[in-house]
Model the fold of this input.
Amino acid sequence: MNISIFIHIGVGFKFVLIRKKVKNKFVNYSIVITTLFLIGGAIFLQIPRSSAPPPPTSEGSVNILIGAKNHKFNPENVTSIRPDIFQEGHFSMFDILVHLDDGGFIDMEYHFDSSMNTHVIDLLDQETNWWYEVYYSGGWPELNVFRMDHYAWKEDTTFKLYKEDKYFLESVHSIFQDEVTRKINSGGDLILPSVVIKGKTFTTEFADVLVTAHNIRNDTFQLGVITAIDVILSLGDQGLIDYFLRWYDTIGDADVVRSYWVSGINDDIAHGTCGWVYESGDRLYKRFAGNHIHIPQDFRPLNSPDYYETFWICL
Done:
């Protein structure tokens, strides 16, 4: 508001008092006091109010959803806090959250739990019990029981966080702990208690299978990282099966695949809409309860799951 307005008000007030024949000395005192009061009010109104800065705006063009809030990030700016898993330039879903937190776009408290070999969200925007949903190009929403800091990001990925039941999260964390304990008890080796193969023409099961890294995705993962596809390759090394792999850049509606697929085991070779799918984890979450998620086998790092199963389907 302009200070001159208050000065004009003060002058006008003087003429009013004169016309009412108020003594000149009193008029002058009244004008001075009134004008100073009005000018002081004007100055007060023009002083900028101190306030907290507005929240920063997310950067980039890739969307993720955290609760009801949409955030954007630039994949080129994300680095991984799991260099033991990812090669430089590659990162997990959890790394995206760390990047947003470092930039001040979200407020997250987290820690690494060695007993589970994963990072855990303690608070995110002052709330607890967060879990996540991810699917790649051509996919759909699905429940998962998989470490967020192992789940590799790639183009055309849908990623969101939501509030989960705390008892579900406690159960998931317990399973992660069981995997770490199992690996410690095996001297650091990944030994699968059960591997089941259900083909079109045969079914077979193996117990206590030693799985080793073959590093066929050393473009994404560090040398020595064991992925689900290493189960098949290890069985082949041990002369227990024959297998055939095929690289796919795209499959159907999935524009971004860029992975090896197990196309054949023994005499059962994928054709048309028939082929091999797989899952791995704890038996408590078999099939679509959380283990059967659509991560290509060569893109799914393993710790020490309770079982691995691959089976033949026709869509």
